[in-house]
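Priority: medium. Attachment 1 of 2:
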């Protein structure tokens, strides 16, 4: 997979995720430590349902689980280092989408 393909996949994921970069980084940090995509997705699923987790992180983890599960067939076949690289690009895209005003958020008005 070329760098351009990785960046494009990251863009597609970020556009579907639409979560705060900080929530994404928390999940990516766990994935990087455990090295297991399935295990990291199970954590996201657990956090999305946990009553001990605040509303915003619950929603973010639900999005992570949902969006990455849609692409699990493609992602599962990629080497760990490629996934870490792609997930890093996702973080960049999340910031870009928020800063460019294309992110939908209750607290941030849409730019026109």
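Attachment 2 of 2:
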């Amino acid at each position: 997979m070329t760098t351009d393909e990785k960046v494009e996949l990251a863009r597609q994921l970020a556009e579907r995720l639409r979560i705060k970069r900080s929530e994404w980084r928390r999940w990516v940090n766990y994935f990087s430590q455990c090295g297991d995509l399935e295990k990291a997705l199970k954590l996201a699923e657990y956090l999305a349902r946990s009553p001990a987790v605040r509303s915003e992180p619950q929603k973010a983890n639900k999005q992570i689980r949902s969006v990455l599960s849609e692409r699990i067939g493609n992602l599962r076949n990629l080497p760990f280092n490629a996934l870490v690289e792609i997930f890093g690009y996702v973080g960049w895209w999340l910031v870009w989408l928020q800063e460019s005003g294309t992110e939908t958020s209750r607290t941030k008005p849409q730019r026109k």
